[in-house]
# Entry
Amino acid sequence: MIEKKVPKLEIPDIEGTLRRLVAQVPPGRVTTYKALAEALGDPAAVRFVANWLSSHAHELPVHRVVHASGAVGKAEFAEPAEFAERLRREGVRVEGLKVKPLIRYFFADFKTDRPLERLRREQGEIARQVRLEPLPQDAKTVAGVDAAYLDSEAIGICVVCDREGGPLDYVEVRQEVQFPYIPTYLSYRELPLYLAAVQGAEEKGLSPDVILVDGNGILHPRRVGIATHLGVILDRPTVGVAKRLLCGEVNTEGMTIGEWRPVVLEGETVGAAMRTGRNRTIFISPGHRADLKTSVELVTSLLKEDPLPEPLRWAHALASESRAA
DNA sequence: GCGACAG
DNA sequence: ATCTTGTCGC
# Structure
C-alpha cells in the first residue's frame, strides 16, 4: 500500500519540560532564568521562561529562580520580598533582595534533553533544502496565511487571492496551542496551523501558486524562518513578509514610500526593508523557490492602501474577525 | 553600557 | 500575538 507522504513535525512539550526543570531545583538552592533557558536548549528562550514562570508561581517553586545578578524574581501575584522570605526560610542568604553569594546556592545541574537544540538541528536540515530561484511569473493565485490566538486555542487562516489581490476563498482551522512563542522558533508554534489551512484550501480545489507568510523566509539567524519552513515542507513557492526586523542590518533613514533597501546578515543579503506607508516598513524575504528580486516585485504588485500586501491583509482581517466572533 | 530577536 | 489608558498625529 502506498502511503501518502505527510509532513512530519514533532512538536516538543516545552512547557512540560520547563515545569520539570523548575521542579529539579532543590530547596535551599537557586537557579537563574538564563540557566533554565539554556537547559531548554537556547538562552534566547529567557524571555519566555520569565513570562511563563511569572504566571505559574502558585504551582511551582518559582522563588528558587533568580536573575543572573542574584536579584530575586517576581511573579504575577508575588512581590520580590515574598520570594526573598521563602528563600530565607529554606536557608538561602538574601540581602537587599539579592542572593549572596549566588554561586554558593546556584544550581544548574539539570537532567534535560534540551529540546530546542533538537529543533535547531531540524531547522538546519530544512535550511539545506531551500531553493532560491525566481518565482513563477505565470502565477494565477497568491495565498496569504496568518494566525490569531484565543486563550489556548489558535486560529489559522489561508486566503487564496487572484493576481490582483482579490480574495477568491479562504479556509479557517482551529487547534490547541502546542508551542510558545520563542524568537527564531516561530515555525513550531504556527506551522501546524498553516499546514492544515493550506491543505484545507487544497481540498477545496484552490491550490495557490505562491504563499505569502506573516513572518520571515531566509531572513533568520539560521536562514529558516517560517516562510522557508512552510515552503520546503510543501515544496511550494513562499515569501515571508514581517512587520518588524528579526535580525540583520539595514539603514532605513530617509526612505521614501515604495523604496526598498537590502537587509544584510553576516555579509549576505537575506531580505529587503520596504517603506509601505508614512511610518511603516515591512521586511520581505524569500521563503522557498523564490528570490529576493521577484519576491519584492510580487509583494509590490499586491500592495494597495494597506502597509501589507492584500493576501496578508485579508488573512489578518479574517483571523481577527474569527477571533472576535 | 550592551542588547533591543518575526508572531 | 494579546492586553489596554491615555496620547499623538492626520
About this structure: Residues 44, 47, 146-147, 149, 181-184, 186, 189-190, 214-216, 219-221, 225-226, 240, 242-247, 283 of chain A lie near DNA strand B (CB under 10 Å from a C1'). The first strand of chain A starts at residue 31 and ends at 32. Chain A has two domains: 14-113, 130-324. The domain at 14-113 of chain A is CATH 1.10.10.10 (Arc Repressor Mutant, subunit A).
